[in-house]
Design brief:
Helices cover 40% and strands 12% of the residues. The relative contact order is 0.14. The protein has two domains: 260 residues, Alpha-Beta Barrel (TIM Barrel); 30 residues, no CATH class. The chain is globular, with a radius of gyration of 20 Å. The protein has 317 residues and is an alpha/beta fold.
Length: 317
């Protein structure tokens, strides 16, 4: 069994649930944890995954709202509708640690995508784990790759990564530089252990880097996990620690606001390492851009956006 422990769904930035299922089926992935992001707070699509394929998805929401009261109301609505946790940025944990209490009281998990080994978050996350006996912290994107010396230098980080209810997600490895990511992953294997490590694709974002699910799965082979370790890493741990957690029955999502009122507007970083086109296309692209108006109208990227916007089929309503 293969479980993908971090997938984005939502429009217009990410993908439909149906697209996610198609990719999963093609790669032999049985289940996935899905979540939105502040740049695409499409909680309706995330929630719909629970109805479209019952039992196949666990969903995490996000803490959004105009003030603390609205954030609290939104989080309550998400948990009441059957979402199982919240996807947090490191800044949420650092600056709004009271969000962890909302998660704890709802018996949910905290999926934390922070940086630098979670040094700014470790104390707050330990407080949450100590306060709530069923609390769970899932460190997304390798829990913030950095120099492994942090485990010797920072007691809170060392304690957090050693905690029995802390999991680390191997995802986004194609974006982090070498040798940093390999050294950090090796340190996690030693410090966290295969029984608390889980695999994830970060689909569809990995496709924006021209990566595939297959290459993302094969990346871990450099560490030569045993058959038992692979079983835990690719599915068994996520099944027992994430999918088997009690969660409220799926119910209508009654948010007290439109989440897109709190959209964080950022461009989408695609093809971070460059877009390699067939050699028959670049001159045509530039000629089209010049005819479109060239630099007087906008950069080449804006022209390509216009071409794609006109040519691609629409999604959603």
């Amino acid at each position: 069994m293969v479980i993908d422990a971090y997938v984005h769904v939502g429009l217009p930035r990410f993908q439909t649930v149906e697209s996610a299922i198609s990719v999963m089926d093609g790669a032999g992935i049985e289940k996935a944890l899905v979540c939105p992001f502040e740049t695409c707070p499409d909680l309706e699509t995330v929630h719909s995954a629970l109805d479209i394929a019952p039992g196949r998805f666990v969903a995490a929401g996000i803490p959004i709202g105009g003030d603390r009261a609205e954030i609290e109301a939104g989080v309550s609505a998400q948990f009441a509708a059957g979402l199982a946790g919240l996807r947090l940025a490191g800044e949420h944990v650092r600056d709004q640690p009271w969000i962890l209490d909302l998660i704890g009281r709802a018996h949910g998990f905290a999926l934390v995508c922070g940086s630098s080994g979670l040094v700014d978050n470790a104390i707050h996350l330990l407080d949450y784990l100590n306060e709530y006996g069923d609390g769970l912290v899932i460190g997304g994107h390798f829990a913030g790759p950095r120099d492994p010396a942090v485990f010797d230098e920072n007691e809170a980080v060392r304690e957090l990564f050693g905690h029995e209810r802390f999991l680390a997600v191997f995802s986004r490895q194609g974006l982090f530089p070498e040798p940093l990511i390999t050294e950090w992953a090796a340190a996690l294997i030693e410090r966290v252990g295969w029984e608390r490590l889980v695999w994830a694709s970060e689909a569809p974002v990995l496709h924006w880097r021209d990566e595939s699910i297959e290459t993302a799965m094969a990346w871990v082979d450099r560490f030569s996990p045993s058959a038992a370790q692979r079983e835990a890493f690719f599915g068994a741990t996520a099944q027992s620690r994430i999918f088997e957690r009690p969660v409220a029955p799926v119910a209508p999502l009654g948010l007290p606001f439109d989440p897109f009122d709190y959209l964080v507007s950022k461009s989408t970083p695609m093809w971070n390492f460059g877009l390699n086109l067939d050699s028959e296309l670049p001159a045509r692209l530039v000629a089209g851009w010049v005819a479109w108006g060239g630099s007087a109208r906008g950069p080449l990227r804006h022209y390509l956006e216009d071409v794609l916007r006109t040519s691609l089929p629409a999604l959603g309503s």
